[in-house]
Specification:
This protein is mainly α. Helix content is about 45%, strand content about 10%. Strand 2, helix 2 and strand 3 form a beta-alpha-beta unit.
């Protein structure tokens, strides 16, 4: 069998981690099976869909390295196709026009709830073959009354739902646009999708869609429903809640490897599963490892994973990912002559990419020295400054080891306290008494800038 999966987001908001997990798992399964991975944009909700969300979907998939096959499918381009199949259902008495207004539907729902029954349409228009002119109506699918819907989910196992629990759901709205449950059936068949991978919140839709597939004599695909992801308050992730918006992770300095690593391990029983490069994941990916229980996001764990990948990424790849952060600050990364030294010094200390930019700005900012702070060092600052100007100026090999030797030798020979000398030098170099290791700081500032700072202070 030629495996074909799809990622089918609706452009009604920015994607969250749950959406991206579906895309990742669908991509991995297709690639492992030497199959195809398609992208479909479900954009029939005209009021809520927006091009900026479509653009962002494409950007996120590119950022993660989840490249799709063939052209992008847009549901909005298939309205005629949907109507063609709706007409077939109407002709074969498998769908019908429903003229029930909102007030009546509300009353039906209230009655069901009052009688402790599952809220659903009561079939009032089902067999009446109504055709009122100039009246609004919807098209409902005439669901099976008897029998069961049986299917095997690769994670949740064998499922069995009685048809009498399902209602005659709407397949075309009164505005003439088809609904989600109908469009996906037509699209999945038209795209030859063999495996549908999506969140477990769609489990209730699956029996409806299987019945539609049967009515249209379409082939029924395999279903894989991923356990739902919850936040720390055990609430379902939502596009309306920006807490786990993937754009926020990017803007806050996370690497794509971090999210891929975390999402692959989320809810998986195999704790030994190691994640490095996404291409290596293809061979080890397996749905058998996934737990059925809901997953609760651990933000602290994501941060620790991000620290690991920042600390282990190649410098060339790192430059690619930090460029946007420098651009936001209107800094041309190509003009930075000590970038690799900064990487070497700071990578094992940071958790987010933006911290690299913050550190660069810190050591290159303009600042004024506070005389009140300088007077508290209890040192002969002029003599100290003059000494280091001379020693650093004569230093041929600018290395951490040589810088350390000069400073420590002076402290020992003059019986001074290290913390005062370190604080003083750090203060005149970056305007802060505490922070990064002094020897590393002097090394990455480089000889010219250090001498400039020392000479400027000496002239005060």
């Amino acid at each position: 069998m030629n495996i074909i999966t799809r990622f089918a987001p609706s452009p009604t908001g920015y994607l969250h981690l749950g959406n991206i997990r579906v895309a990742l798992y669908s991509w991995l399964f297709a690639r492992k099976s030497k199959g195809k991975f398609f992208l479909r944009i479900e954009d029939t909700d005209i009021k809520r869909c927006n091009k900026k969300y479509i653009d962002n979907i494409l950007y996120l998939l590119d950022w993660l390295g989840l490249y799709w096959d063939n052209k992008i499918y847009f549901q909005s381009e298939n309205i005629d196709l949907y109507n063609y199949y709706i007409d077939i259902l109407l002709k074969n008495n498998l769908a019908y026009k429903c003229y029930c207004n909102c007030e009546r539907l509300i009353e039906v729902r209230k009655k069901c709830i009052f009688n402790n029954k599952k809220p659903k349409y009561d079939g009032y228009c089902r067999n009446k073959n109504l055709n009122y002119k100039n009246s609004k109506y919807v098209i409902r699918y005439k669901n099976f009354i008897k029998g069961n819907v049986k299917f095997n989910d690769l994670i949740f196992g064998n499922l069995n739902i009685k048809n009498k629990e399902l209602d005659d759901f709407v397949i075309r709205r009164s505005n003439g646009l088809p609904t989600y449950n109908f469009c996906v059936v037509i699209d999945d068949n038209n795209m030859l999708i063999t495996h549908i991978i999506r969140g477990s919140e769609h489990l209730n839709n699956t029996p409806k869609q299987i019945n539609l597939l049967k009515s249209l004599n379409f082939k029924i695909p395999k279903y894989i429903h991923l356990p739902i992801i919850l936040d720390k308050f055990k609430k379902k992730l939502s596009k309306r809640n920006n807490s786990f918006n993937v754009n926020n992770f990017i803007n806050n300095g996370y690497l794509p490897q971090t999210l891929i690593n975390y999402l692959l391990k989320l809810g998986i029983n195999n704790n030994n599963l190691e994640v490095n490069d996404i291409k290596k994941l293809i061979n080890i990916f397996n749905f058998n490892y996934i737990n059925k229980s809901p997953c609760i996001i651990n933000k602290k764990k994501i941060i620790l994973i991000n620290k690991y990948y920042i600390n282990n990424i190649s410098y060339n790849n790192l430059i690619y990912y930090i460029k946007p952060f420098f651009l936001k600050k209107k800094i041309n990364i190509n003009n930075i002559n000590n970038l690799y030294e900064i990487f070497f010094i700071i990578l094992n200390r940071i958790y987010f990419l933006y911290e690299i930019v913050d550190f660069y700005i810190l050591i290159n900012r303009n600042f004024k020295l506070d005389l009140n702070i300088l007077n508290k060092f209890n040192l002969n600052l002029d003599i100290i400054t003059k000494y280091f100007i001379k020693k650093f100026n004569n230093l041929n090999l600018w290395s951490i080891q040589n810088i350390k030797y000069i400073i420590k030798n002076y402290i020992n020979n003059n019986n001074l306290k290290s913390k005062y000398v370190y604080s003083f030098l750090r203060y005149i170099l970056i305007g802060y008494k505490y922070g990064i290791d002094l020897f590393k700081l002097i090394f990455i500032l480089k000889k010219e800038k250090v001498l400039l700072k020392l000479n400027n202070f000496y002239r005060i």
